[in-house]
Amino acid sequence: MPVEVILPKVDMDMETGTIETWHVKEGDQVRQGDTIFEIGTNKAVMEVEAPASGAIRNIKAETGVPIAVGTPVAWIYRDGEAASEPAAAASLPPAEAPLSPAIAGPSAASGLRATPLARRIARQNGLDLKAVTGTGPRGRIGEADVKRHLEQPPRCIPAQEARPAPAPAASPSEGRLQPFSAIRRIVASRLSESMRTAPHFYLTAEIEMSAARELLRRLARRHERIGAPKPSLTVLIARVAARILRDHPVINASAEGEATRFHERIDIGIAMERDGDLVVPVLRDAASMDMPAMSREFARLRDGMAKRTLTPAELGGGTFTISNLGMYGVDSFTAIINPPQGAILAVGRTLDKPVGRDGQIVLRPMANFTLSSDHRIVDGVAAARFMAELREALENPEVLL
Amino acid sequence: MPSDTLEAVSEIRELSYAEAVREALGQAMEADERVFLFGEDVGVYGGAFGVSGDLVHRFGKERVIDTPISELGIAGAAVGAAITGMRPVLEIQFSDFVTLAMEQLVNQAAKIRFMFGGKASVPMVVRLPGGSGTGAAAQHSQSLEAWFAHVPGLKVLQPSTPHDAKGMLLAAIDDPNPVLIFEHKLLYKTKGHVPAEAYRVPIGQAAIRREGSDITIVGSSIMARKAEAAAERLATDGISAEVIDLRSIRPIDFTTIAESVRKTHRLLVVYEGVKTMGIGAEISAMIAESEVFDFLDAPIVRLGGADAPIPYNPVLEKAAVPQEDDIVAAATNLVRRGEA
Questions:
Q1: Interface contact B297-A140, CB threshold 8 A
Q2: Over the stretch B125-142, which tens digit does the pLDDT of each residue have?
Q3: Domains B4-193 and B207-337 fall in the same CATH topology
Q4: Which residue range or ranges hold the Peripheral subunit-binding (PSBD) domain (chain A) (predicted)?
């Protein structure tokens, strides 16, 4: 019997996935473990390997169309198996048919209201209706809402539209049209959603980094001794933030409808760049790790990201995010909250600057930290208290003892 | 609608709905001696609503027969006449009285052709003046067409214009099956272009009275006319309504409704009969069950008669059935706010 290739469940709460790219075509010979297609979830893009060796036949699934988890998308025929095996005849429902609750027909439990036409258009465009704001009665999403969403920049370009070569520019001055990658599409949709729904406010603190630098120097020696990766400033900030967040539950929280979800665990996402795309691997239960453990975990995530071996679970679900652009010489910046989190910390570069100390102007390494908070759940004073403690801990790390 | 050729030969003239029905009866009786009229006061009195008029003088008492006040008797005699080769056209003075003729219409007329394996047919036509708006109270104002649309073997028509009243009556007389034509009493005096020659309007084809893109309004009989007037007003408010006149509710032209809703994404069904378990429920369900479901951008809305006997008080009588204002309001709400 030919081996069925199904759309795998690569994430806990995944109900559908979209095949972003087929790496093989009808009749190609594959070996077990070869990448045969890339699948997009609402968090990330994953490569899917061939479950067996043989010839790929009966590719049933189109790219860019949401498909229910477990749906057969192709078959692998081993040597000697005729292409007319009955299994091949087992037909896949039309790619449009298995409507995922997440994409096209949210379950009643999700509370999402949308008209049949809105669902149809969303389905055709590979659009997750959760990203659309409904303006109808009781928040119902109608055709107009979906069309408005699809038209607004940054828009979610459906994969089937993205597939053809960039349209010829009307005039050379218009430049090149680069369709969004799957990740870019996710980033665009999630961050637009964040900016639309979460009222952001920003608190900036200029923090002296002398003690932190000294601490990193000493830790580096210790890590070398015990065989842990060299500690980075980002990891140190994550470690400090994780420690402080324990005392600031409202910063480690999410807005959920008209309620605040206080997260039991502190999972810190670290914004990173991969091939021009933004990805956010997560330091799970960061408060439980010491510096060597966190440095090891950070190194593992960074390598896994580069090799694309991280699972969607490792790339999402954080409760707080840190974005450090200091290494690019950025002085300070404001970041967009990574939904559904409640806050994100933006770190600028450390620069020797003249500051007043004991009536004297002296040079000290200073860095700007800007906290973006969702004002629905975090008030100014709560955010300010967090920043005050962050300053104290970075300037006098012994307070963490 | 008349073809270009017909237009060319027929003089453009206006007739009232009642005159158009009378003209059809006269032409059918002239053309076919098997056709005869049957009913209470259809002879010398000319019919309770003056529809048969002078026909008794033109065709004599043998062919325009005044009957006793017994709807069951009239219907039974008509069924018998039809089976034996005649083409009876009977009038139920007020459609409400058809309750008395139910046995003959539902158990006999509708079934005979099937129960005798096609060896007998019942080519009879029943004309039923119906509807509210004349101050005739609960027993003389009902819209009972949906009852009969539930019966296989019957055809149920509701022409809304003088043109259709004539053309559909002639088509009904030709038809080998029992056909019920519900004529709204308020339409009898409305006027419209009616070609002079005998022509047929096919049974089972809806008419698109007005094309539109924002909402489909489906109605029959007087509700089609009210929907047309409402669409006119909606247009001045920037809402483009497509108006479908069903003309026939059994058989029903589902294709025309479906194609329209596929285009407009919204459906409002308007009917004078009691809303509950009515024509609107059937049309709504047909759309919801069909592939057009995926093209709906708002709930389907029904505007139907109140769940109450038609009141005698003229203000309440008007309030008990959908009026032009109600159609405008419901359509506006549906298009602008997506609300049912």
A1: no
A2: 999 999 999 999 999 999
A3: yes
A4: 113-150
Q: How far, in Å, CA of A145 to CA of A22, rounded?
A: 32
Model ipTM value: 0.76
Which residues of B have a catalytic role annotated?
A: 71, 140
Neighbours of B225 (CB within 10 A): 21
Q: How far is A68 from chain B (nearest CA, A)?
A: 19
Topology at the third CATH level for domain B207-337: Rossmann fold (3.40.50)
Q: pLDDT by residue (tens digit) across A194-208?
A: 999 999 999 999 999
Q: Given the structure tokens 């004349």, which residue do they identify?
A: B134
Q: How far apart are CA B128 and CA B183, in angstroms?
A: 6
- Which 3-state string (H, E, C) describes chain B? CCCHHHHHHCCCCEEEHHHHHHHHHHHHHHHCCCEEEEECCCCCCCCCCCCCCCHHHHHCCCCEEECCCCHHHHHHHHHHHHHCCCEEEEECCCHHHHHHHHHHHHHHHCCHHHHCCCCCCCCCEEEEEECCCCCCCCCCCCCCHHHHHCCCCCEEECCCCHHHHHHHHHHHHHCCCCEEEEEEHHHCCCEEECCCCCCCCCCCCCEEEECCCCEEEEECHHHHHHHHHHHHHHHHCCCCEEEEECCEEECECHHHHHHHHHHHCCEEEEEEEECCCCHHHHHHHHHHHCHHHHHCCCCCEEEEECCCCCCCCHHHHHHCCCCHHHHHHHHHHHHHHCCC
Mutation target among B284, B297, B301, B335 for the A interface, most CBs of A within 10 A: B297
Q: Do B338 and A136 touch (CB under 8 A)?
A: yes
Mutation test of the interface with chain B: which of A96, A99, A113, A115, choosing the one with the most B Cβ atoms within 10 A?
Answer: A115
Q: Which pLDDT tens digit goes with each residue over A20-51?
A: 888 888 888 888 888 888 887 766 777 888 88
Could you check whether the bond before residue B309 is cis, i.e. omega within 30 degrees of 0?
A: no
The structure's pTM equals 0.55
Domains observed in chain A: 3-89 (2.40.50.100), 108-188 (4.10.320.10), 199-400 (3.30.559.10)
Among B293, B294, B297, the residue with its CB nearest the CB of A142 is B297
- What is the fold of B4-193? Rossmann fold (3.40.50)
Q: Is the pLDDT of residue A2 over 50?
A: yes
Residues of A in contact with B265 (CB under 8 A): 117, 143
**Tens of pLDDT along B64-82?**
999 999 999 999 999 999 9
Contact B297 A118 (CB under 8 A): yes
Domain boundaries, given as residue ranges, for chain B: 4-193, 207-337
Determine the pLDDT at residue A106.
38
What is the CB-side half-sphere exposure of residue B173 using CA atoms within 13 A? Answer: 29
